[in-house]
Amino acid sequence: MIRIYEATEPSDLLAEAFARLLPQLSERMTAPDREAVARIVASPATRQLVAAAEDGRIVGLLSVALYDVPSGRKAWIEDVVVDAATRGRGIGEALVREALALARREGVARVMLTSNATRRAAHRLYERMGFVRYETDCFRLDL
Question: Which label site among 21, 29, 50, 91 has the fewest CB atoms less than 10 Å from its CB?
Fold first, then answer.
């Protein structure tokens, strides 16, 4: 059984999960240090959802950013990752469903996410959950 919850306090367990899971999302990703983990869970604009196995080990992560702009209240889902050893068990879907429930409770009008073009299984999941490809270009500038 998997339990989905919001991480509201920094912990060694959460820091270890970032270190173990983020490189599975992208080889270029590095884990946040303990200070960054504290900022992440303390931020009023973001929520960190966690999927934990019965033994308490974190097997999945998802971040939700909530923000208000003139076009409405929105949410952006980021850094969705499920441990490779536990994929295919509905954990990613459970995380996304909890993120959508959170967005509804927060009065969000639109939820967006991006996904690497190579993550075909994730794309199928998002489409099955009702997400549609949006005709826009995404630009990025690393500072």
Answer: 29
CA distance 3 to 20: 19
Convert the pLDDT of each residue in 74-113 to its tens digit.
999 999 999 999 999 999 999 999 999 999 999 999 999 9
φ/ψ region of 117 (left if φ > 0, alpha if ψ in -120 to 50, else beta) reads alpha
Contact 94, 7 (CB under 8 A): no
Please tell me the number of Cα atoms within 13 Å of 89 on its side-chain side.
16
pLDDT of residue 143: 94
At 7, give phi and psi (nearest 5°).
-80, 120
